[in-house]
Amino acid sequence: MPSHLRFSPFRIAAVAALCAAAALSVSAAPSSPTLNLMPVPAKVSLIEGKYRITAAAAIGAVGEAGPRSRKAAARFMERLAGRTGLFFEQDFLAGLAKPNEVGFLFKYDSVGPLDGTADESYALTVSPDRVFLVAPTDLGILRGLETVLQLVDADERGYFVPCVQIEDQPRFRWRGLLIDTGRHFMPVDVIKRNLDGMAAVKMNTLHWHLTEDQGFRLESLAFPRLHTKGSDGFYYTRDQVRDVIVYAADRGIRVMPEFDIPGHSTSWLTAYPDLAAAPGPFRIERHWGVFDPVFNAADENVYKFFDRFFQEMAALFPDPYVHIGGDENNGRQWDANPAVARFKQKQGLADNHALQAYFNGRILKILAKYGKKMVGWDEIFQPGLPRDIVIQSWRGRDSLFESARRGYAGLLSNGYYIDLCQPAEKHYLNDPLPADVTLADNERALILGGEATMWSELVSPETVDSRIWPRTAAIAERLWSPADVRDVEDMYRRLDTVSVRLEELGLLHLKNQDMILRRLAGRADIGPLKTLVEVVEPLKGYSRQNQSLRYTQLSPLTRFVDAAFPESRPARTFRQTADRFGETRDRTLGETLRGQLQRWRANGDLLRPLIQASPALAEIEPLSRDLGTAAEIGIQALDAILAGTAADAAWAQDSLKALEQAKKPKAHAELAIVSGVEKLVRTTLGK
Ligand code: ACM
Asked: Between 569-584 and 674-684, two packed helices, what is the crossing angle to 10 degrees?
């Protein structure tokens, strides 16, 4: 955790000037309704007054500003110009203005190290004359500049920053996003725009999952067959890797590579079959799941290979940590290999778990030799390993707490699997250190934070942003903000604003929905398709893969379901309104629901010509029909409730049965408004 802020004379003067104003303390959650901050800062005081943004606004530093903060200042002004349309007079790309002339002023003491230990705290004071940021390190300035951009608001007179005092620091020092580039390759542009999104919500670690059964995604000089044979040509060159690392570092983000071994390694073994525990040849895997190919942990050549491999990678990636995966080795090839059995016996290794622990121990020594610390999925946890490894919990939170009790640092990813298409609320309330966990202070300190995981079985470069954003912003808040910031409704309110603002960074999470629908319809006017897509969600968990189509790496991800967002916001709002209406019978709420339902009921007729014109849309016909059916039932229920007529039990039974049908998966998606309609039907029965 960062040390306390050192306050400069500048800041004290600015604060003194503000003391006259009455400060409305909104420390911790919920944030004031006038603010759209995400993550919510540790301490916010809203003050009367506004700093007006004009074309004369400029940015400057007190004292020296290093390259990272200068670049951040330039990006800040560029985004501000983009948002406000103002032609700033300052040539902000060429240099920084003088402190006494500027509206946006910052000051820091030192350059923060990008090793997971840096102080990222900052203090922000906005007065009518000036926006002033102070931080111990330049990383704090970067975090604070994002806060300022989130504070920018508008009224009839123009754009402004509301007067506030903020003191902020992260709760956890490791706030990561994993992007799986092994299963589906993600070009550098995808990585970069998501790094911008991460920086906007104060995340600080990109976990770059670079190798999988389905692809080895980076150039190796030592073993070039890895990328030439293991990638279909979709890999990052070493120059691209360096470019991404610099881009991330400019945004205060570490890049930790993951090389998933000894399992999940078909692509490596396609290139170097002699290193496998079973005879080859192997082929790049196209399906999803857990596969047999595994490195031969009993073969000394394997360790020679990894020594050279990690020597190369340790030089390429500056981060102190290397992730070795270690998950989901099914052990079948080890079991089938007599030499492996003999090796286990000779070494006194009782089972495959022990053999993998032996393998990890050897890899750990190699990494240590090249100055790296080891991170692995919770399968690698084995008492006796050195205490500077980090365990990443994906199978449950208990393994995180258990490893902390035994003195090992850990990261939480269980509950942050954003590929499962679960609601933001679920991730948001998943705390790495829940109030009821019994850990001593020194054990709590070992919980470093967490990572959202974007596994890429069912995402392409076109759709990946919409699976990451905006929900990952809710996870970012969980990992940054105080533990008691847990107001779900306020989170959703802010998430809507954050989502739109993320677009200014080039993220395509909103934009590509329309693009996919236009492509499917073959026309620009997609109104009725949009109405339907807004109320469906992709099937949750991994059930989409169990439907009629078997997805592989080569399957198109261009269907209607791929345009649907993981969480339907209109469906959530409808459900909540139906709940409130059920409690209050409020006529205005009833009319709101009726308007919505009438629009849905009418949609089928409008959509039909689009479906008829596009074979790729044929599969959504049942979804569209179900939306009409559900809407009709909802309207009948509303009519009965508002008329105060007696419940018709037979009608209610039939309706609930029809809604049960409407809930079933269709076109790999589900209709998310059905539970709201069910609520209306139950309300007719007085339930
Ligand atoms: C994992 O999800 N197998 C780490």
From this structure: 10
pTM across the whole model: 0.94
Domain limit, last residue, from 468, 503, 538: 503
Q: Is 377 in the pocket of ligand 1 (CB under 6 A)?
A: yes
At residue 549, the pLDDT reads: 81
Query: Candidates 214, 264, 328, 329: which one to mutate for ligand 1, based on the most atoms within 8 Å of Cβ?
Result: 328
What is the spatial distance between Cα 638 and Cα 311, in angstroms, rounded to a whole number?
68
Residue 612 within any structural domain of the chain: yes
Catalytically annotated residues: 328
Last residue of a domain, one of 140, 168, 196: 168
Residue 100: burial class (beta carbons within 10 Å; 0-12, 13-18, 19+): exposed
Could you tell me the residue range of the domain that residue 589 belongs to? 512-684
Residue 181 and residue 126 in one domain: no
Residue 2 maps to a domain: no
- For residue 341, the number of C-alpha atoms closer than 13 Å in the C-beta half-sphere is 7
Pair (647, 669) in one structural domain: yes
Residues 296 and 396 in one domain: yes
**Same domain, yes or no: 149 and 236:** no
Do 323 and 428 belong to one domain? yes
Q: What is the CATH number of the domain that holds 79?
A: 3.30.379.10
What's the burial of 137, exposed, middle or buried (CB within 10 Å: 0-12/13-18/19+)? Answer: buried
Give burial (CB, 10 Å; 0-12/13-18/19+) of 44.
buried
Same domain, 275 and 361: yes
Q: Which atom of ligand 1 is nearest to the CA of 325?
A: 4
Q: Whose CA is nearest to atom 3 of ligand 1?
A: 327
Q: What is the DSSP string of 77-134?
A: HHHHHHHH----SS-TTT--B-GGG-SEEEEEEEPPPSSS-----EEEEEETTEEEEE
Mean pLDDT for each 10-residue chunk of the chain (687 residues)?
29 33 39 77 94 94 92 96 93 68 92 96 97 98 98 97 97 98 98 98 98 98 98 98 98 98 98 97 97 98 98 98 97 98 97 95 97 96 85 94 95 98 98 95 97 98 98 98 96 96 98 98 98 97 82 96 98 98 95 98 98 98 98 97 88 97 96 98 90
- What's the Cα-to-Cα distance from 238 to each of 184, 242, 246, 477, rounded to whole Å? 19, 6, 12, 33
* 647 backbone dihedrals φ, ψ, rounded to 5°: -65, 140
Site to probe by mutation for ligand 1, drawn from 381, 451, 455 as the one with most ligand atoms within 8 Å of Cβ, is 455
β-pairing, 373-377 vs 321-325, is parallel
